[in-house]
Design a protein that fits this description.
203 residues, alpha+beta, Rossmann fold, three-stranded antiparallel sheet, two-stranded parallel ribbon, 5 helices, 56% helix
């Protein structure tokens, strides 16, 4: 191979590499622009998702507060939600607040801070929220759900359940040993064991 032939070959290789580099630069610029658009779209979707979660949680908080205030009318009781991301997923922690007679605001999780009655009401209302959110049949079975509810709050509790059923067009089947609940039910039956099976007697 002559010197001139070698020179022309190297020149052609250089031009080919320059053309390839130019093509790669163009492809990189397109990919960077595409990545930028996708990152912006992801940011918008994150904001929309956070807003939807916040609105949904706020509706739950409102229902929980309404229920707690109906059953504990003598207390300055409320509900707050802490929303944060944990490992890329949205996490929600519900906390109950009570303003004491001394003006001190106590905040904590229901069962740990305020006992079984508050936790029972919250659990019931969250189950109702789940039924509504999932668009399930508006029917709830409660089997001995209220042992933590004091007798002096039973009437308030049943009145609240009735109002909830009327507003949400929901039916509740409540199984209980508490006569105070059965006495206030729209329809109540006593179940007795017999030799031939269970016997239902309308109260």
């Amino acid at each position: 191979m002559t010197l001139e032939e070698r020179f022309l070959k190297l020149k052609a290789m250089k031009e080919s590499e320059e053309e390839r580099n130019s093509s790669l630069d163009t492809e990189i610029a397109i990919l960077e622009a595409d990545l930028d658009v996708k990152q912006q779209a992801l940011s918008v979707l994150d904001l929309l998702a956070e807003k939807e979660v916040e609105e949904g949680v706020n509706s739950y908080v409102h229902l929980l507060e309404e229920g707690l205030k109906a059953i504990f009318p003598e207390k300055e009781i409320g509900q707050v939600a802490e929303i944060k991301k944990v490992r890329g997923k949205v996490a929600v922690k519900l906390k109950t607040t009570v303003l004491g007679e001394d003006g001190l605001l106590v905040e904590g999780e229901g069962l740990d801070t305020f006992g079984g009655a508050v936790a029972t009401v919250q659990s019931l209302l969250l189950r109702i929220c789940l039924i509504l959110k999932r668009d399930l049949r508006p029917f709830l079975i409660l089997d001995e759900t209220f042992p933590a509810i004091d007798e002096d709050r039973t009437e308030l509790f049943v009145d609240f359940l009735k109002a909830l059923c009327q507003r949400l067009d929901m039916k509740i089947l409540c199984i209980t040993h508490k006569n105070s609940i059965a006495d206030q039910a729209d329809n109540a039956y006593k179940i007795s064991a017999t030799k031939t099976g269970a016997k239902f007697t309308k109260i």
